[in-house]
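Lecture notes, unit on protein representations.

Consider one protein chain, 148 amino acids long.
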Amino acid sequence: MKLKAALALLAVVSPLIAHAQFAKPEDAVEYRQSSLFLLGNHFSRLGAVVKGEQPFNKDEVAKNAELVATLSKLPWPAFENGVTTPKSKAKPDAFSNHAKFKEASDKMELAVAQLNTAAKGGDLASIKKAFGEAAQTCKSCHDSFRAK
């Protein structure tokens, strides 16, 4: 229960704090890359279970899905105002087509929220389906807004 309360507070407060703290473009880029790294790490843990590379542990899957859902809210404030550096892999379209970028991030957040719900239910078939749908939103965004 404490984890859920802490994650909820983190999801609400972190984007607000982060947005106010980007004194330098490098800070924004580092923040979004770090949050996306963590998101990808926990998503990959779910992927290993879905692919059968790791054993299915209902509690571990639920914990990682909850983290993914929380972390999915963090990177987006660091994309505001077109802040970038040469270290960034964001394509210019992430900044020039903000409406399309926001739509893609909203779809991803919804898909990982549905994955989180499926993981709480503990049915591996439902988790696999929700994982596939979430993975597709990630791929779509990477294809449109991330340089290789």
